[in-house]
Design brief:
With 679 residues, the chain is α+β, with helices and mostly antiparallel strands. It contains 19 helices and 14 strands. It is 58% helix and 13% strand. Strands 1, 2, 3, 4, 5, 6 and 7 form a seven-stranded antiparallel beta sheet that branches. The protein has a five-stranded mixed beta sheet with strand order 9-11-12-14-13, covered by helices on one side. This is histidine kinase.
Amino acid sequence: MKSGVNSRRPLSYLYITALLAVGYLIIARVPTWRGQGEFFQILQTSAALLSLVVGIIALLRYSAKKNNTLLFLATGFIGAAAFDLVQIVFTSDLAIGTLPSAPESLYAWGWTISRLFVSLMMFFSCLSWWAEKRWRRQGQVSESVVYIVTTILLLSSLMLFGFVSLPQSYFPELFISRPWELISALLFTFTLVGYLAKGEWRFEDFDHWVILMLVVSAFSQILLATVSYDIFDSVFYGAYLAKNLSLWLMLTGLLMSVSSLFHRVAKSEDILTTKNVSLTEVKVNLQESLQVTRLKEAELAKKISELQRERAKDAALLDSIGDGLVATDDDTRIVMVNRGFEAMLGYSQGEVHGQPVTAIIQVEDESGDLVPYEKRSHPVALFTGKKVSENLKHYYRRKDGSRFPVSVTVTPMEVEGQTIGAVEVFRDITREKNIDRSKTEFVSLASHQLRTPLTSINWYTEMILGGDSGKINKATREYVEEISLGTSRMSTLVSALLNVSRIDMGTLAIEPSPTDIQALADEVLSEFESTIAEKKLDIKRIYKLKDPLVEVDPNLMRIIYQNLISNAVKYTAENGTVTISIQDNEDHVTFEISDTGYGIPSHQQGRIFQKLFRADNVRALETDGTGLGLFLVKSILDEAGGSIWFESTIDVGSKFLVKLPVAGMKSKRGTHNFVDGQS
C-alpha cells in the first residue's frame, strides 16, 4: 500500500535498533544464565509456524501478482520453516541417539542452515529488483527452478542431518564463537542496505516492515548468533527471541499488504460502479454520434477515393521523370525512390527503403576515392536547411559495381520551419562529360598548335624591336609594339587554356620539392615592379615563417602567386596598398594577399572561381583578363590538398587567403606540367 512520504519511518528504524541494543546489554549482563530445553522447543516451534504462515501468505500474494520479490520471500520462509521442522524432529526425544550427530550440533547447525537459507532468498529478492532496474528489463524468474532448488536444498539438509556427523559449530576460544553465522549476517546486512537504497520504504508499507525485519535479523546475527558460546545460554535465547520478533514483523508487513490489496479492490469496485453509470451515458451519446458518423463515412470514402487518385497521379508523375529521385527523412533514411533511381543504380524500392541514403549510394571522386560524409550533398542540405546543387567531378556507384558521373540537386523539405527530410534529384551526365572531354581535348590541341606560331611571332617582333633587322622608323616601331602586345596577350590566353585543359583532363602533374616560398613571392612581385611604380602602390610584406622551405611544386606555386598578386596590382587604383602576408603554425601555412582595390560585388561573389568569369565592375575598368586565373588557382589547390577563400567589399578592397598543410602539397602523377602565364 502506498501512503504519503512518512518522515517518521527512519526514526522507527533508530528506535528498534536502540531497543535491540538495550536488550543486548541486558543479555550481556547474565552470560552464565542457561534456559531449559522446553523453552527452546517452544521458541523453535513458534519460529517454524511463523515462517510457514509468512511463506504461505507471500505465496498467495505472489499468485495474485507475479513478482520476483514475493517468489523469493515465499520460498525463503517456507524453506526456513521446513528446516526448522526438520530440526524439531531430529532433536526430539524419539530421534536423539539414533542420529550420528550430537544434539548440540543439531541445534546449532539447524539454526545456521535455516537463517542462511532465508537470508540468501531475501538477498535474491533484492538482487532481482536491482537487476531489473540496472538493465531496464522486466524478467520473471522461473518458478519451477526456484521450487526445484528449494526442494534440493531441503532434501540435502535432511540427508546431512540424518546420515552425516556434523562438524564442530562452537569455537569458545575465539571472540566470534560461531563464525559460520557471519555469512547470514552479511547477507541480511547487504539486503538491508539494498532495500534502503531502493527507497520504496518511504511510500510502501510492505517495504517498511521488511526493513524492520531486516534490522532485527541483521542485529541478532551480528551481536547474538555469532557470540553464543553454548547451547541454551542467554545469547542463544536472545537470538531466538529476535528471530521470532523478525518473523512477527514480516507477518505484519504481509498482512498490511493483503489488507491494502482488499482495500484497493473495494475502491476499484466503487470506481467501476461510477464508471458503469458514465458508460451508460456515453453509450447514449455514442448512438447519437454513430448516426452522424455514418453520414460522414460516405463523404470520407469519397475524399479517400479522390486522394488515392491524386496519389496515383503523383506516383505516375514521379516515375515518369527520367532523372533519379530519392526522398529521405531527417535522419537520411530513404522513404521513397522513383523508377529512374532503380534504373540508374540497380536497386529496387524494397531493397533501399529505410536504409541510410549514404549507405546505399556510394559517392566517389574522379580518382575513385569515397567522398567524406560531411562533404556529400544530402547531409549538407539537411544540416544547413538550404538547397544544394552540384555538378562536380563526382560519381555514383551502381549495385553491379560500375559507376557514372552525376549532376545532383538536393532540396530540404520543411514543415512549419522544421526540416523533416530532403529530396535528391540526380542525373547521369556521362554524355555531357564525354562532350566536355572532347571539347577540352580540342582546346588543348588547338592551344598547343597556336603556341608554336605565337612563339615565332614573339621572337621575330623582339628581333625587329631590337634592331636585328635594321633600324626602323617611329611609326613602324609603334606598329610592331602593338603586334608584340597583342601576341603577348594571345600567348597568355593560350597558356591559360592549355592549363585549364590539363586540369579538366586530369593530366596535371604535381611534383613538390623544398621551395623557399618567401623568396618565390618576392621574385613574382618583382615581375610587376613597373606597374607598381607607375600606379604608386604601397607594397607591404609580412613574413612570419619558422622555415621558409616548404614542399610545394615551384611552378604551380609561382602560378598561384602570379595570378593573386597580378589581380591585386591590376585592380587597385593609384596610391593604393597591396599587402602580402605569409605565416605558418603547427598545422598550416597561410598566404594572404589583400588590396584596397575595387572589390567584388556581393551578388557575384559566388561565381568568382568559375571558369571565364569576370566581375562587372572590373570588366568595365580593365579590358585585359581571361577570367581563368582564379579558376586555375582554386583547381591547383583542390588537387594539391589546399584551400582558398576570400573576403571582399565593393570599393574597399579584397583579401584572398590560401592555406596549405605545413607538410606541403600532395604529390600527383600526371603527364603534363603547367605552362607559365597570368590569366
